[in-house]
Design a protein that fits this description.
alpha/beta; 304 residues; methionyl-tRNA formyltransferase activity; six-stranded antiparallel beta sheet; transferase; seven-stranded mixed beta sheet
Length: 304
């Protein structure tokens, strides 16, 4: 089949590579326009745009998918199906109607749980026992289309960023298998209507840590917000970002937010239990091991 691939960030690259290596023909790639990046804020193509150029593919960068020129080009390309991974823009009905087999989205959750922009982060923050990917046909309602494939695995103890890259690799294989199945005539099944949860983007204010919560919940919060937007708290009136932590089997019980530093470890109390801080970032500093930060003498006071 002829297909168009739509995606933008690095997490979409495994899927583009998998489809480019398949028996199907990727006739064009759709991605977000070049955006400012780096210290000089120079306009830079997206990771998907750069990889597509390496592969010699036509690249479309519409500022908006409602643009007549974009829709005209999509119509003339006449793809049989379109694949989407983290494209970052809504697709209007006239564009959705162009490929006869629709637009197939690889979504990083076990639908219908966690529909929306931040499914992996929300799953980690909620302490879900499983994580996974879903391939479904896009409809106008958010992440509500009929399902082709759902794959799950036990939730590991990892940051949301690490999990996303893990799912990007396994999901790429799932997406390629889904396109094969569509070519063979497979039909999707409706999503369940029960168990729907939403996964909106996490705001900076929402990322603030509440140390009165149980230690397991605080750990999940920190891992789920890492690396973006980064969980944070305040120490002596200054913001401290927390990127990694784990549950500690400590013989002492510091109060919620109270720091306890040993020669090799940094602990903090929670509402129930104790955490070991592993990676932090102080204002104006780089990310570093929590014990290195503590050795600078900064780890005194209470995290709030």
């Amino acid at each position: 089949m002829k297909l168009v691939f739509a995606g933008t960030p690095e997490v979409a690259l495994p899927s583009l590579d998998a489809l480019a290596a398949s028996e199907h023909e990727v006739i064009a790639v759709v991605t977000r326009p070049d955006a400012p990046a780096g210290r000089g804020r120079r306009l830079t193509p997206s990771p998907v745009a750069l990889r597509a150029a390496e592969l010699g593919m036509e690249v479309l960068k519409p500022a908006h998918t409602r643009e007549p020129d974009f829709q005209s080009r999509m119509t003339s390309l006449a793809p049989d199906v379109c694949a989407v991974v983290a494209y970052g823009a809504l697709l209007p009905s006239p564009v959705l109607a162009i490929p006869p087999h629709g637009w197939i989205n690889l979504h990083f959750s076990l639908l219908p749980r966690w529909r929306g922009a931040a499914p992996v982060q929300r799953a980690v923050m909620a302490g879900d026992p499983k994580i996974g990917t879903s391939c479904f046909r896009i409809v106008r309602e958010l992440d509500a289309g009929d399902l082709y494939r759902v794959s799950s695995r036990p939730m590991p103890e990892a940051t949301a960023g690490e999990l996303l890259m893990l799912l990007a690799e396994s999901g790429a294989r799932q997406l390629a298998e889904t396109i094969d199945a569509i070519a063979a005539g497979e039909q999707p099944v409706p999503q369940e209507t029960a168990g729907v949860t939403l996964a909106p983007k996490i705001t900076v204010e929402e990322a603030r840590v509440d140390f009165t919560r149980p230690a397991a919940e605080v750990r999940n919060h920190i891992l789920g917000c890492s690396p973006d937007p980064g969980a944070w708290c305040e120490l002596n009136g200054k913001r401290l970002k927390l990127y990694r932590a784990r549950l500690a089997d400590a013989q002492f019980t510091p109060a919620p937010g109270e720091l306890h530093v040993t020669k090799r470890q940094v602990f903090v109390g929670a509402g129930e239990g104790v955490l070991e801080l592993l990676e932090v970032q102080a204002p104006g500093k780089r990310r570093m091991a929590a014990i290195d930060w503590a050795r600078s003498g900064a780890a005194s006071g209470r995290l709030v």
